[in-house]
Design brief:
This protein is an alpha+beta fold and 162 residues long. It has a single domain, classed as Nucleotidyltransferase, domain 5 (2-Layer Sandwich). The chain is built from 4 helices and 6 strands; from the N terminus they run ββαββββααα. A two-stranded antiparallel ribbon has the order 1-2. Strand 1 and strand 2 form a beta hairpin.
Length: 162
């Protein structure tokens, strides 16, 4: 007789809503400098306003202009703040009329794409090790190139015998 096909297997984490450490999907907060290209990534317990504000204050200078999406958790950010509205199909904006779209979050979006590509080969990471993997990715992005002085410092740091 006719057999019922097996249900399609579930791929990835399809749960809706924001991740938290409690529901097994800890969020990763990130900042990237437009001119320095330095990345700062941290695993967080949640994405509440206080958590995001603390991250921004820790990793930006007081004179920094922060560019974000329209997430309400960024309201009242204690830095100059500009946002793009993805919900309104806005991805970049030219505020000063010079034909250069300087308001965008493309740098951060690219950083997240790179992080996903870096984590993909590990096929699932325990929450207890996630911060270590994130630190390795941050280090690799910020290093840019391995130089002789860096290798010297690394060898001296790991050298066991005086």
């Amino acid at each position: 007789m006719f057999e019922r096909p097996e249900p399609a297997r579930q791929r990835g984490n399809k749960r809706r809503g924001r991740g938290t450490a409690d529901n097994g999907r800890p969020p990763v907060l990130g900042t990237i400098g437009r001119s320095s290209r330095q990345v700062r990534l941290r695993v967080a317990a949640d994405v509440r306003k206080a958590t995001l504000h603390r991250h921004v204050l820790q990793f930006t200078l007081p004179s920094t202009q922060v560019m974000t999406d329209e997430n309400d958790s960024y309201n009242d950010l204690p830095r100059r703040h500009t946002r793009v509205s993805h919900m309104a199909k806005e991805w970049a904006r030219d505020d000063d009329g010079d034909s250069v779209r300087e308001v965008h979050t493309n740098s951060a979006e690219g950083m997240w794409t790179g992080l996903r590509a870096f984590l993909r080969p590990f096929r699932g990471i325990s929450q207890s090790f996630l911060a270590g993997y994130i630190a390795i990715y941050e280090f690799a992005v910020n290093l840019k190139r391995v130089s002789p002085p860096f290798i010297g410092q690394l060898v001296n740091f790991h050298y066991l015998y005086p």
